[in-house]
Amino acid sequence: MTAERPRILLVEDEVLITLLLQDMLLDLECEIAAAPENLDDALSAARTGAFDLALIDPLLTLLGPHPTVYDQLGIVQTRMGNRSSNNAPRNTYCTRDGTWVAISASAISVAERVMRVVGHPEVIDEPWFASAGERVKHAELLDGYVASWIGARDFDEVMRTFDEAGAALAPIYDISQVMSDPQFRARESITTVEDEDLGPLAMQNLIFRLSESPGSIRFSGRKLGQDNEPIFLDRLGLSREEYEAMREEGVI
């Protein structure tokens, strides 16, 4: 892990705002993977040794079944954009007023409701429609129907119609929408932490909170070497003389 605060870059294109850089995704995924090990160490004082965790290992879990599929079938997954190799329709679609929404009809019941909403119930009776794998083969057709219907309507009408029909659809948020979303606000998914330089600073809250000890974020990020003294003197037991000598020699 780098000692510096992670850089956050918002890259906007015509589809959505990308929130995470690749290196940040690596760091965060590794931290999530390491958390259970750290908790286990804290609860098992008698346990000795260290655990081995590299950045690349947690990241590989994001590939899902691809290693197994390649091992067994020799299939190399090609680029599919926002489509899925397992179900259809599944994609992102732009409304008439320029807002993007996402649909993932993984269940046959959801796929049926989506096609009824967009005015093409006739495809439901096609022999291939009942199979997710077969629907994927007809993704171009299904995507065309969905994109055409959504593209002819404003966001509010699209959301209202899909909601009334019980058809799964979600808006693709930019960061301003994330910050104002009532569900995120109710869960306090974004919290405010006091920063020494910037004052009140909004950031993501803890991923999970225990009922009896919900925890909190104590600081937004530490400066380089800010906690050297408590770590070397209190935790590692160095004397003040040893600590000062290491500082003078440039060890710390």
How does this model look, in words?
With 252 residues, the chain is α+β, with helices and mostly antiparallel strands. It has four domains: 11-77, no CATH class; 90-173, formyl-coa transferase, domain 3; 181-214, no CATH class; 222-252, no CATH class. It is 41% helix and 11% strand. It contains eleven helices and seven strands. The chain has helices at residues 22-43, 56-60, 66-73, 108-117, 132-137, 139-151, 155-165, 175-180, 182-187, 228-235, 240-248; strands at 11-12, 17-18, 90-94, 100-104, 170-171, 190-195, 199-204. The strands form three sheets. The chain has a three-stranded antiparallel β-sheet with strand order 3-4-5, with helices on one face. It has a two-stranded antiparallel sheet with strand order 1-2. The protein has a two-stranded antiparallel sheet with strand order 6-7. A hairpin with a 5-residue loop joins strand 3 (90-94) and strand 4. It is elongated, with a radius of gyration of 25 Å. The two termini are 17 Å apart. The model is unreliable at 1-24 (pLDDT under 50).
Quote the distance from N terminus to C terminus. 17 Å
> Major beta sheet, specifics?
3 strands, antiparallel
Specify the CATH class of the largest domain.
Alpha Beta
Number of domains: 4
Q: Given the C-alpha coordinates, what overall shape results? A: elongated
Kindly state the percentage of residues in helix.
Answer: 40-55%
How much of the residues is beta strand, in percent? 5-15%
User: What is the N-to-C order of secondary-structure elements (H for helix, E for strand)?
Assistant: EEHHHEEHHHHEHHEEHH
CATH architecture of the largest domain: 2-Layer Sandwich
List the quaternary state of the chains: single chain
Count of helix runs: 11
